[in-house]
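just leaving the lab so this will be short. what follows is a protein written twice so to speak, once as letters and once as structure tokens for the fold. can you read through it and tell me how you think this chain folds. anything you notice is useful, everything is just below:
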Amino acid sequence: MRRHVSSIMCVTLIGSALTIFVGCGGGTPRPSSLVQIKGKVVKAGTPVAGVIVAFVPDGDTKGLGADGISDQNGEFTVKHKSGDPGIEPGTYSVQFTQLIKPDGTVVDRNLTGPEMEEMGKKGIGPTRLATASAKIADGSEQQLSFDVADLAKRERAQESQPQTRGIPQRN
């Protein structure tokens, strides 16, 4: 009986060690090929800090997407959801948001989990600035530039157009 108990303990310890060293297989998978993306966000030509630039896969694009945050020069670098720099090639909806505090100041850096939680408790969430689309081709690096004022203006113009899909037009 003593030998049976020690065998069970040995198997349990080996199993635990394998789980610790190998892992449980969870987490974000690392893609094999990422395109490096650097860009700039401006508003009417002026660099904008603290803009969260999120690339969300669109259409048939596979992958998890990526994001970055603009610095005081409006420049950003995209980081894949796995933590690696870059993004998979494909078509993306690019969403531009900012976190704005009640005093009007913009949060211009990545926040920690507790900081985000605290802002959420105060009812502070992201403010949507604009949306664009981007086609990321295979390659080593791409430079992108977005003017959120121009993008927002185009969105408002499109929203004000009457929807005619499926309705016959009479002249």
